[in-house]
Structure formats: structure tokens, C-alpha cells
Amino acid sequence: MKKLLYIIIIALALPVGMVAQSGTNSPYSQYGYGKISDQSTGLSRGMNGVGLAFRERNLVNYMNPASYSGVDSLTFVFDVAMSLQSTNFRENGKSKNANNGDFEYAVASFRVMRHLGMSFGILPYTNIGYNYNMASRNVVDEQTANGATSYLGGTTYSAAYSGSGGLHQIYLGAGWEPVRNVSVGMNVSYIFGNMTNSVVTSFSDTYVKSLSGISTTDVRSVKFDFGASYTHEIDAKRSVTVGLTYSPGKKLGADTEFRIITTNTQSAVNDTTLYVARNAIELPTQFGLGLSYKYGSKWLLGMDYTLQKWASVDRVPYVNEATNVVYDYTDSYSNRHKINFGGQYCKNTMGFSFLDRLRYRFGVGYTSSFLKINGHDGPSEFSLSAGVGIPIMNQWNNRSILNVGVQWQHASAKNLITENTFLFNIGITFNENWFSKWKFQ
Predict the structure, then answer these.
(1) 252 Ramachandran zone, left/alpha/beta (phi>0; psi -120 to 50)
(2) What is the sign, positive or negative, of the torsion defined by CA atoms of 74, 60, 106, 123?
(3) Helix (H, G, I), strand (E, B), or coil: what is residue 356?
(4) pTM (2 decimals)?
(5) What is the DSSP string of 164-179?
């Protein structure tokens, strides 16, 4: 019990101190509630996030809470990971690179009693992190003569955009197997975080020096996720599992505040106007379907499809960068479709050779955008991944795994910024034999 209490404190207290960090540099994170995080763990990271139908005894699978019922009865599984990423942004022949690092997750699971397992942890839900400038010319007077245009006067302005924050979740879940090979489960999550977006517009040749628009949202709410799975045993080695997940949409009860700050060059006085959008944050309804095939401990293959119904979610108002007037969005969100394929191969998990015990992982996926930007679809994403699970073998433990993975993400849309991201994940799945009983003769 002391070990359990210590690991709970470490699993929750340490990551909470790190959630203020942003896990992205993408300018697309200014839209919606930020860039949606990959919520897969451990083994699934090298398989491009596949996992809705996985029910492994040594895996914490938050994606489907029904999987908790399959946790080994003798062990406590703890999984934690960090990531490093390098992104190249390209637009109109111009290119820029950015690097970032982030805490990914800390989760754990254990068996409570026969056919009943539990899990808890902390992980990100969305990330906001961007900082860029834009400049343009606002022409107020012009004349055309002999096919040539000359500017008689005008005002130039530049806009500086920045944002930070995002949403995180602490969850507690349970999975139960009421009938052999049939499991159901539920997660209860506490959603929290602060989202800040700002734009500062500076003008020339006007009495207004600058306009600043700052929006802030502080979220504190609860959400529920449900899961179910069924495993069909083909024979002693082969099995097929189907996984289903459902997350109901929910208003989070959070208000978005807009502050418009005007700086007058003549009087040097700042005027502030406050607008409030009540109960503006809403999470979409989500459905998931997964299928996996397992051949002993040698092969594990999976396919996932996820639908997030963003089209039914109202968009938060925005601040125009030139006038800093709050407008309602005219564009709606689009439904987000995500499909992933992945697999793992291991020659022999109990082999005497270290190389035989290595887990080789691979995956591929496609995700459509839920964003509408200036009336056009946002960037869709294509991704490839590879990874390896390295067994930690010593005199105290031979079940823990060091998980290393790399992923390439390509996000693009017509007439918008193209992003190429290389993501490096490293984590450890601790599989401690805490609950076995010693027998003496």
C-alpha cells in the first residue's frame, strides 16, 4: 500500500508542475482550443496511436477503458513519457524551423479484484503555442492613370499573434469483464487549463498607435468516456478483438473574455473594453471503432477509426486583427475523421537472446482537419511511425519496457502553411510485481 501511495503521488504531482509548458509551435493551434493531442501511450506510440481494440496485461490503454479488466493480477503498471519535436513550416517559398519538447503523459493501472481493473493518470488534451507576425498595407486613397496605379496616401499596419496554454485532464477509470471475453469500462476526467490568444496591431499615420485584443478562457470541468470490447479466440494462439468507445459532447461551463485595449498616440491613454462570451467552450461527441489481431506474443496488429463531431460545436467568437472588433464566426467546424493502422512484431518475448525480446513497431495514419480557415478546409495530416520496445532485464525486473518511437507528420492544405514535424518519443512502462504472495515450505 505504501508503494501504491508513493507512485500515485509521483504520477500526479510531477506532471502537474509541467503542464504549463506548450507542446506545439504550430500557428494552427490558434484555432479552436488548440492542437488536439495524441492520447495513446507506451506500446501504441510506435504504432501511430493504434489501440482502441488492445487489451494487454502489461499495457495502460487509456484510449479504451474496457482494457483495464485485462491487467495482470500480480503487477502494477506505470507508464510515463516525454517527447522532442522539430517542425519545418513552409509558405510561399519561405521556410522556418522550430524545436520543442513536452511532457506527454503519466498513467498507471492495477487489478482491484478478479475481472476488475482500475487506471489513473494525467495527459494533455489540447496544446496552444504560437508566435508570429504579419504585415500588410491598407490603402485609403489611390488613382490610376495610363494603366499605372500610384498611392497618394495610406496606412500600414502590422499584427503580432501569440498564444499559449491548452487543456489537460486527470482521470480515474475502471474496466470490468462481466462475461468471459466481454469487457466494459468508463473514465471520469477532470478537464482543466487556461487558453490565452492575443493579437497586437500597430498602425502608422493614425492617432491610434496600437490595438490589442486578448482572449482568455479558464476551464474547470468534468467529462466521461465509455468503452467496450469483445475478444474472439480463434485457437490457442490467435485471437481477434473489437473495441468500441463513446464520449458524449459537453459544454464545459467556461466563459471566454475578450479585452480590447486601444492606445492613443496623442493622449497616451489606454482604453479597455471587455466582452464576454458565456459558456463558450464545448467538447464534441466522439465515436471510436477498433479492430486488432493477435498471434501469440509474436504479432499484434490493429486498425482504428475515430470520428469527432466538431460540426455540431459552436465556434468561439474572434477578434479582427485590424479593427480588434469581436465578431461571431461565420464558418462552422467540420467533423474530424482519423484512421490508423499499426503493428508490433517480437520474435520471442521470453527468449534467452536480448535481440529476440525486442518489440519492433510500425504504423501509418490519416487525419482530416476539423478547422475552417477563411472559408477553406484546414490542413489534413498524414503520418508514419516506427518504434522499438526494449526490455529492461536485470535481477530485479524482467517485465519493464523502454519505449522509443519516431513519427513523421505532414500537415497541409491549399494556400495555407505546410508543416512537417519529426517527433521523438521516449518513455518507460514499469511493470512491477507487487501483488504476488510468497510461499514457504
Answers:
(1) alpha
(2) negative
(3) helix
(4) 0.86
(5) EEEEEEEEEEEEEEEE
* Cα–Cα distance measured from residue 206 to residue 203, given in angstroms and rounded to the nearest whole number: 7
Cell, residue 188: 471520469
Cα–Cα distance for residue pair 123/247, rounded to 1 Å: 17
CA distances from 123 to 12, 31, 381 (A): 10, 21, 22
What is the amino acid identity at position 111? R
The alpha-helical segments, DSSP class H, found in 127-198 are: none
Cα–Cα distance, 245 to 265 (Å, whole number)? 57
Task: For residue range 18-69, list pLDDT tens digits in order.
Answer: 444 556 888 888 888 889 988 888 889 999 999 999 998 888 999 999 999 9
DSSP three-state, residue 14: helix
Nearest one of 17, 26, 16 to 99, comparing CA atoms:
26
Cα(87)–Cα(165) distance, integer angstroms? 19
Q: Is 239 strand, coil or helix?
A: strand
Q: What is the arithmetic mean of pLDDT over 173-188?
A: 96
Provide the pairing of β-strand 359-367 with 336-345: antiparallel
The set of cell numbers assigned to 316 is 468561439
Residue 330's φ and ψ, nearest 5 degrees, are -90, -25
> Are 186 and 224 a contacting pair, CB within 8 Å?
yes
CA distances from 312 to 96, 332, 389 (A): 35, 8, 40
3-state DSSP assignment of residue 4: helix
Q: Which of 239, 225, 191 is nearest to 64 (CA)?
A: 225
What does the chain come to in residues? Answer: 441
